[in-house]
Amino acid sequence: MTAASHTGDEIATVIRVLEAFRRYDPDMPIQYALSFLTIAQNEGLSMGDLAQRLGIAQSSASRNIAALSRWHSFGKAGHDLVEALEDPRERRRKIVSLTPRGHRLVAALRALVAGEPVVAEFEPDAAARPAARTAAALASTWRRVPAPADFLSSVIRDGDVRYARTSP
Fold it and tell me: Among residues 13, 30, 34, 108, which one has the fewest Cβ atoms lying within 10 Å of its Cβ?
């Protein structure tokens, strides 16, 4: 095998891995994938150690971990691939490890790199995709929010002048 074909094989493998992340979530930024892979190689890493290994700010590492966790921010669904737990020896420190879903994704990626058949199990079903979980959470929230007509009728009925528009 020549050096050029060997390099082509390695690049093809990298492309297959990136495509696997794209199948998992078409909108996943590469920084999340790099964070995930670094955690997979070094499970039990602290957020500070992750930031140092990736050469990013600790706030960026924290955001990446939040996106890879079950819930991202503001109630938005995350990927549920990692979890950050308080270090029992130092409460300010968070230790990051893979969730069962994260372990399945790592197993699928290892199989992909080894050229073995990949079980489609690592690809979340429609209900498990972050966008689907977010949509379900929003739908649940919207059922509890009064319709605009209900809100306006309550303002008119209760005489709340804070929301009344004055004419020019």
Answer: 30
Residues 106, 98: contact at Cβ < 8 Å?
A: yes
User: According to the model, what pLDDT value does residue 50 have?
Assistant: 96
> Which portions of the chain are predicted below pLDDT 50?
1, 4, 126-127, 141-143, 163-165, 167-168
Backbone conformation region of residue 131, classed left if phi is above 0, alpha if psi is from -120 to 50, else beta: alpha
pLDDT at residue 139, as a whole number: 53
* CB contact at 8 A, 64 and 35: yes
DSSP per-residue string spanning the chain: --HHHHHHHHHHHHHHHHHHHHHH-TT--HHHHHHHHHHHHSTTEEHHHHHHHHT--HHHHHHHHHHHSSB-STT-B---SEEEEEETTEEEEEEEEE-HHHHHHHHHHHHHHHTPPPPGGGSPPGGGSHHHHHHHHHHHHHHHSPPHHHHHHHHHHHT-GGGPPPP-
Tokens for 17, please give them.
Answer: 């891995």
Question: Hey, what are 105's tokens?
Answer: 């994704």
Q: State the pLDDT at residue 163.
A: 47
pTM flag (> 0.70)? no
